[in-house]
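Progress note, sequence design subtask.
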């Protein structure tokens, strides 16, 4: 089989060599100068560089012009999915096309599909064409967000529809309005559900409850989540959401609101999540989502390893303590000593004072992060709340007392992928 990989995600995450038989298949990686050092080593393959500065689909198509048509196009980064759909269309390759990718990237299209399946979503509207609050069928707190955004970047919650529209009028350029939406804010805890689908069935489906929120994390607050057991109703609800947006094969990360009157869909992605979600899922089930995504695409579900059922009250969680709001690229950490060697800690990562930090869900880029478990859900949550209250991150000034400048770093580690 001829396999074309639109390369963005590093080999230490995907393990390409372990999950693609490079001797049996003709594999071509289209990479960028920035990412080339994160390609797999010691495998038989073809590597073509694209500039990495323009339209992804256009650069990939130019890179493979004149080559035989691939049988499979792999794109493992959320930010490459739309381009991969365009490439498949242009080359006549089977797999998700642009319209399919939009179902899991554009939040307006996504929620429209989920609502059409009879599943509750917060009321929402594209921002374009809204001139005043009277056109909006709700009142009160309102979310303004990019329709194809990620990492909660560009998301704000305003007290009213009119304030959301006023903020949009000031902060969003007229040419960018088509890329935004507004939706009613529904109070409640946020959960995420992660796993792998194959042939419309869930091979793995694991829910977790956030401790704090992704939006608060973007603002500088620690974030984590803890796993809990899924009942039949949650499994059924999740599958209905996934099938509504066409996720029948591959990894998924779905977020929902536990509102007072039941679950409400927030968003879903056909990829794995950041933080320590993948690690916690592997500890609970034995399945590493990035590798499973590749094996499933290349060899089908029969190539996947067996999945174990988590033991009751033997759950896992993860955490990130950020430093991107400090005003400095470097930081000092205190209050962590009682947690670092705690029996619940499975992974602990901590940046040294001379290692830069930045906004990211990758553990290598934040001051303190880790994975915890196994334990009952409430015990894990209590542990995270104590850790978040105790661990302090403070900026490190340079020798003159000013803010330290960022030190050069490897883009493969610092890109804020989910």
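Output:
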């Amino acid at each position: 089989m001829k396999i074309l990989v639109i390369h963005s995600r590093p080999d230490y995450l995907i393990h390409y060599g372990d999950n693609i038989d490079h001797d049996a298949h003709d594999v071509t990686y289209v990479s960028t100068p920035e990412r080339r050092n994160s390609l797999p080593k010691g495998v038989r393959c073809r590597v073509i560089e694209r500039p990495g500065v323009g339209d992804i689909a256009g650069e990939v198509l130019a890179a493979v012009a004149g080559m035989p048509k691939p049988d499979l196009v792999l794109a493992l980064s959320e930010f490459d999915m739309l381009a991969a759909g365009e490439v498949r269309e242009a080359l006549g390759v089977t797999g998700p096309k642009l319209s399919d990718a939009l179902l899991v990237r554009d939040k307006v299209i996504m929620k429209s599909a989920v609502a059409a399946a009879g599943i509750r979503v917060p009321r929402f509207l594209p921002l374009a064409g809204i001139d005043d609050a009277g056109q909006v069928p709700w009142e009160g707190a309102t979310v303004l967000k990019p329709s194809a955004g990620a990492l909660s970047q560009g998301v704000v919650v305003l007290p009213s529809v009119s304030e959301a529209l006023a903020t949009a009028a000031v902060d969003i350029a007229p040419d960018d309005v088509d890329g935004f939406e507004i939706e009613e804010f529904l109070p409640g805890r946020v959960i995420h559900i992660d796993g792998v689908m194959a042939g419309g069935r869930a091979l793995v489906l694991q829910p977790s409850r956030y401790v704090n929120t992704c939006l608060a994390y973007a603002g500088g607050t620690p974030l984590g989540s803890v796993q809990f057991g899924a009942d039949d109703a949650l499994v059924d609800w999740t599958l209905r959401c996934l099938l509504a947006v066409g996720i029948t094969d591959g990894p998924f990360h779905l977020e929902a609101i536990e509102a007072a009157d039941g679950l409400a869909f927030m968003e879903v992605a056909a990829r794995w999540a950041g933080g320590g979600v993948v690690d916690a899922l592997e500890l609970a089930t034995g399945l590493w989502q990035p590798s499973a995504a590749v094996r499933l695409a290349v060899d089908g579900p029969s190539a996947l390893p067996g999945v174990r059922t988590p033991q009751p009250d033997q759950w896992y969680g993860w955490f990130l303590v950020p430093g991107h709001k400090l005003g400095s690229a470097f930081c000092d950490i205190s209050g962590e000593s009682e947690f670092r060697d705690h029996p619940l800690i499975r992974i602990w990562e901590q940046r040294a004072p001379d290692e830069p930090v930045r906004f990211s869900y990758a553990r290598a880029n934040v001051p303190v992060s880790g994975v915890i478990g196994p334990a009952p859900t409430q015990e894990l949550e209590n542990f995270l709340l104590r850790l978040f209250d105790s661990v302090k991150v403070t900026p490190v000034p340079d020798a003159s007392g000013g803010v330290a400048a960022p030190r050069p770093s490897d883009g493969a580690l610092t890109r804020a992928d989910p």
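The chain has three domains: 2-103, 123-184, 189-395. Work on this subtask will continue into the next period as scheduled.
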